Every structure is written in C-alpha cells, then in structure tokens.
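Illustration: LuxR family transcriptional regulator.
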Amino acid sequence: MVVQLRLALLGPFVAQLDGREITDFSYGKVRALLVYLAVEANRSHQREVLAGLLWPRQSLDRARANLRGALAVLRRVLNSQADLPFLCIEHSTLQFNRQSPHYLDVEEFGRLIDTALAGHRPQAGRLGEEEAGWLAQAVALYRGEFLEQAELCDGEEFEEWVQVQRERLHQRVVAACTALVAHYEALGHWEQVQRFARLQLRSEPWSERGHRSLMRALSNGGQRAEALKQYERCRRLLAERWGAEPEEATRALYEQIRAGSGAGVSLAAAPGPPLPEPGNLPIPVASFIGRQQQIAEAQALLTRPEVRLLTFSGTGGTGKTSLALAVAHKQKVVFPDGVWFVGLASLQDSRLVADAIAGVLGIKEAAVEPLLDRLAHFVRRRQMLLVLDNFEHLLEAAGLIGHLLARCEHLKVLVTSRVRLHLYGEWEYFVPPLGLPDSGDALRRNPQRLISEAEQLFMARAQAAGHRFQLDEQSAQSVAAICTRLDGLPLAIELAAAQRSWSDPRLLLGQLADQFSVLVDGPLDQPDRHRTLRCAIEWSYRLLSAREQRLFRCLSVFCGSWTLAAARAVCGEDERTAQDLSVLLDHHLIHQQSSADGEQCFLMLQTLRAFAQDELVRCGEVSALQNRHAQYYLAFAESAQQPLMSAEQSLWVQRLAGNNENLRAALHWAERAGEAEILARMARALYRFWYVRGYLSEGRSWLEAALLRADALPVPLLAQVFYGAGILALRQADFEQAARRCEQARVLFGQLAEPGGLARAELGLGLAAFFEEDYSRSQLHLERSLAIGRNQGGLSGSEVTFALFFLAAPLSFVGQYDRARALIEEALTLSRANQDSFAIALCLGGIAQIEHQSGDHSQAERFYKEALALYRSLGAQDGAVSWILSGCAALALVHTQTQRAVHLYAAAAALREVVGASLAPDVRKFHEPLIASARADLGPRIFQAAWTLGSSWSFERAFSEVLDAGPLVSGSRIPP
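Result:
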C-alpha cells in the first residue's frame, strides 16, 4: 500500500499523510526534528548531535531524553501502512528514508531548477521553452520563505541552520525569476514579464533591475500610468530602506516612459547592497555596468553540483576580475562559510599560493603538519567559495587547487586567468568583451538611447571624470564608434573615457583615430583584442608628459601597493612627484586606497603594470630601479627591527604585512642579482615579522638562502642570520636544526664578544632543549642567557620574560611551586613595566597553572580568567590561548562539570589546529589522563558528541564559555 507523506516547507509549514493534514505533533520540536531529518536526508545523524541541536541549553542526558520523547511522538504521528518506513532508526543514529513514498517541496524545487540549468547551455544565450517551463514550476512552488513564521525551535544552531536554508532558497528563487524575466523580455511576452518581475520583487523588493523590468513590461503592455506609479513605489522603497535615490538607469527609464518612449529599452542593473555574510570580498569602488547575461550564466554554472572549478578565461582587460567579484557577491548567501577572495597578481612564486590562501583564511603553519594538509583539513568540512584572481603566471600551482578540491567535497573554486588551468573537472567560461552597438540599429537616431553595455560603461565613466557634453545624434554616433574602435574592452573604454583632454566624443574619436593610424601594427602573434588594448594603453601613456611617463614606468617596479615616500625614494626625489601621481590618478593609470594603519597608498592594475614594465625595459632603466627598490625596502625592514620588540609590535606587523609583496620582490631581486649582503640583511631584519605573522617556511627558506652565501657575509651579520634561522626552526618544532643554528650563532657571537647576541643564542638553545624535554640542559642555557643579559645587556624585555617563564615551567611539574612562582612573578612585573600585554597574559597563565597544580583551584580560576580576558581584548589567536583553555577544562573536570570540560578541551584542540601550535610536553602529559578520565565517565558516544560540539566553537564562543557562563570551581581547596 502506497501511503505518501507530503511536506511543504516553502512558506508556512504543512504536513499531510495520505491526503490528510497532520495536526497532532504535540509541540514544535517534533516538527523541527522531522523538518531537519527530511531536508538533511542525504546522511545519517548522531542522536547526541540532534539532541544538542534541538535542546542546546540542557544537559546532554536531559537532551537525549527529550529526543527520545520527540522521536516517540514522531513515530506515532507517521505510523502508517506504507511499504517503506519514513525513518531509519538505529541505536545511535537517525535518518530520513529517501526511498520512502514522500513528497518534499524543497526537494522538488531544487530538482526543477537543477534540471532547467542542466539543460541550459550558456553559449545558447537564452532559456529554451522547456527550461523556462521547469523554472516557472519551481517558482510556483515558492509560496514564501523557508518555514515562514514557523517557530519550531529556540536553539541558536537550529535557527542558524534555518537561516542558511532560507537564504540559499531565496537566492535560487530570485535567480530563477531573473532568468525568466530576461527570457520573456527578449521574446516580448510582456504579461509573463509582469508576472515574474512581480514575483522577483516579492522576494527582493529593493531590486532596481526588477523594478525596471516591471516598468518596461507595464509600458509595453499599454499601462504607461502604472509604469510611472511603479517608479514612485521603487523610489519610496529605496528612500525608506536605504535613504537612497534610484539609480540613473532607473531615472532615465522613468523619463523615457513619461515622454512616451519607454518600450524596448534595455538598461543595466547595479548590484544591491552587500549582505552580511562571512568572507572578505572587496566592495567595488565604482558601479558595475552590464554583464547581466554573463553573471546569470556564471551563477547557473556555479549552482550545478558537478561544477566545482570554474575558470574565467580571456585576454587582459576584458574585466575578468570585475565579473568574478560581481558573481561572487551574488553567491555569498549560497555559501554559509563564506566567499573568500585571494588576489594573486603580484605573487611571483607559485610555491606561495598555499600561503596566500592560508593567509586570507587565517590559517597559520603548524609545527610538523604541511601547510597544504592544514588547508585541506580546515576547508573540508566547510561550504565555501574561493575566488583566485590572476592565476595565469602561477600555473605550476594548479595541482594544489586540484588537491584541495579532491579532499574538500563542499569547496568550489572560481579562478580568473588568461589561460585555463588544464585540471580534470575544470569548466572554462570565456569572458567576452562588452556588447557593442549594432551599426545598422535604427534606434541610433534617438541620441538618448545607448543600447549596448560598452556605451553604458563609456558614459558612466565619462560622467565620473567630469565630462558634461550634451548627447545629440552626432555625439551618440561618436560614442558608438569609440566603443567599436576599442573592441568593447572594459579597460580600454575606461582609460579613454577618463581622459581630460577632450570635451566632446567627436574630439576624442579624432584623437583615437590619429593614434591608431600609428599603432595598428601590434604583435602579429597576439589576438586582435590584445593588440587593441595595448594601443589603448599606449595612447593613454603618450598623453602624459615625459616626466609623467617616466614616473609611470618607474612605478612598475613596485609589487602591490606603495606610498608617496616610497615613490619619491625609488623613482627619484622630486618635489613634483605628488603632483605627477595626481595626474596618473586622473588618467586612471593608478588607483589610491588606505592601508591597514590609515596611510594613503597607491597601486596599479596588473595589465597596466605589464605595459609599464615593457617600457621600462625598452628604456634600459630596470637594473637601477630594482636596486633602488631593494635599498628602500631594506631600510624599511631594518627600521622595523626595534619596534617589533616593543609595544608597537602589532602596528609594525601590520605595516610589514601591507608591504610584504614589495619585501618579497626585493628579496627575489637580491637573490637573483647575487647581492648576498642585501639578502642577508633583509632576512635578518624580517625574521621576527615572519615569526609573529606565521610565515615560517618562507622565512626559513630566505634565511637558509642567505646562509648559502655565508662566505660573502661579514661575521656579525652571519651570526644574526644563524640565530634567526634557529628561532624559526624552533617555531616549526625542528628542534635539532634549531639547536644547530643557535649553537653556530653562539660560537660566532662569542668570537665577536657581543653579549646581546650571545644571550639570545643561549636563550634559543635553552628553548630547544626545553621542548626536547632536556630540562637540565635547558636550565643551564636559560640561566646563562639571563646572567649575560642582566650583567652586560642585550636582551629585550620580552626575551627576559621568555627566559624566566621557561625556567619556571619545568619546576612546577616537579612540585617546586614557590621557586616557579617567584620566577614568573618576576617576569610578570617586568612585562607590566614594559606594557607588553601578550607577555602579561602569558605570565598570568603560568601563575594560574602553578595555583592549579598546588591545589588552590579558586585562585587558579581567577588567574586563568584574567589571562583569558586579556587575550580576548587583544583579539589573540595564539597557541597560549589553547593552553589557558585546557587549564580551564581541567578545573571544570575536577569539579564534575564533565561535558563542559570536554567542550573546552575540544575547543582548545581546534584552536591549536588553526594556529599550528602544540602543548609543551609536560603540559600534554598533565592533561592526557584527565581527557581519558572524561571519556571513561561519559562513554565513547557522549564524549564524541561533546567533543564534536566543542570543536565547532569559534574563539569568541570558547572565551564566553569560560568568562560569561558561570564559575568553573566551587571554591574549595583540593590537595594536589
């Protein structure tokens, strides 16, 4: 007997069994359990996880009991004579039976859209009638947003899940309506356009593109007055919601309809306001013009499950990056773990692509785990989109992308590249130039009608540049001719439109004609569009004065951004440099932005930089410029050495990070040019930055490259390079190499009789011995370091703090609490005097651990929380935070808060995974039996469920669990 269960979740919740509505669910969480299982039917679910999802504020035992009760109600409600049960119930898991006779509107909605998109080829340009029919069926199923007005569960994680589903489905119905509107508008079926534009606006009422489509449909359908009223509705809604006026395109359409000429106009839409989703997508500075067809096609491709790697290919200047950003912004709601943009244009070494991705995602290198494995481990459970921009010069790293996709099933990657990556499963989407005007278009007689995207872009950028000419029949024809002459290439059009040397398009067209009469013979082995782009750039370049041309050429030596001071130092000190930079800004040959610390800096598009570098080579200026560039950034790096050891450390780390591309370029040049001393001095100056920032492998490779040229280095510099290499090796847990390099540094510093260097080398040897658990040797080196540093100077306050702290650490584990406490309190006093917040928190944690081990748990909790609050205020994601959380977990466990303890232990472990840290050997030995005890008390299933929940916590959630969720201990003193 076939008994069908029907669930309608798009709009108000409705459940029917064999045609009769189910009304006796008893309470909301029974419905929530059914909804969650039905929507997530592609996998089984652990009972403990479901219990925590639906009853997050109760103990796990109580939550499991509630789950059993809800499941009993659900089984009774769904009891039927169906051939297949609706639920697959196991001892520890639950799953909705996908083979059972059921109907789920969300499932059917997705199937219809996927079917339509699977049959739609982007090259075809428009939907077929069958595909449009499938999309229309899908839209008809969308009675409202997912679980509209349904209050099923008050759990935060369940509500987050609902919101993700809601946004994903909302995005899909908007995309479907948009595609249908475009389809029927192209056919001139105005009633259908009205229908789907109204549906689009119901889901996205602030979409000006939807309002314009509806206005055109009403006007073309003979409802001119209604079309004008629709504009007023749009204007009122924008004013109320955003405090904004309609876009120029919307106002222009309104004026055309009011004048009685509103039929058949096609104007571009601008993107809506950014949505608050995770990720780092840059907000476009200028409005995005056109490309609506390409955006829709690319979105359709990304929606398909089999498309996991999509490459936007095409020649330079076609706007691949702009299109990728426009698509990515529209995809933000589809990827709950964010859309992340990784700019690769200035990266010179393909080996650093993984570092660039990790840096954007906030992943640091681990001591022993390869960075690529850490990346894959971090990404594999997350639904995210990576946008990798300008990949064509890093094709050797393409295998890395394939590796990530193979290991991370929910990851999708969007690449922009002049050539495809040639990876298995790669989908290529060629980005064409903008649409051009039809030379035989009869509508050209109306000068106000700029039909093509290329013309729209030209006019928008010309107006932004201050051109206020009147568009008459002749000037409209000139605009069309300019766009055609420039082949619709966005970069070429923007450069032409931005020039200040013309006031009428006819004048500009004449200038272009003169230039192209000279610049028609570009390289024959290049595509025509590429030859045209070069001509357009060269034309802009020739409009500059000789002095401005030279500055433009010289600026190509910079990678990434640069400041006015850098431009003056590298390109030649000139009081007119600032004025010349302003000219280049006006010509759109460079751009301006603010750095992380608020300083104004400049940057150049990669295509323009390539042209300028060619000119630099042609003029024979490369070698001298690269030398001055390296000298400038060497001085900059060396100026950061002392601040990196002071209270200004955070500020200078930001400054160095903002200039890292130029620092890398200088290092590469010094290595290629055989400038051993410049290479070594830069590496010596930057090792602390690499240490703090987590660029460990890169830093070690540069230091070791400098050591390969040891014979060319003065002994004092060589000793410092040995020490830097040892410290970075120590950070990567390569203790043997760390000890070797620090010993080589110690010998040289001893020969030089340099007490500061000798004290630091002894400190490095002491730390290496500590982590190898040779505490007697560690103590010997650390005491030598302190003795030299205190008697003869040379150690910074933070280095003295480190030496004292690691002298104390092993003492506490052998019961010498008083001596350990005295050393750490001395370190705490020093760090407070130096206002070194990180060191203060480290020392507070050390005192807390001593109080913990000596049995004063109330004091331990006080110091742990004080340290953690300080780390929280600093926004720290350091390995020491994991150490503090583990201590708090141990306190909670001793005081019978077992599940809370497991949550904290798991959060601490997840944090160590993210930052690439590890616990000291004795600390690890202290906690391992406690974790084993918790596992035995809870049983493996409950323990694993609690561990899984804690592993998912953010840093802030873990902080809150300690600082805001009540005491960890009862205040009693328990013997150690």
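Reading the tokens back as a structure: The two ends are 68 Å apart (CA to CA).
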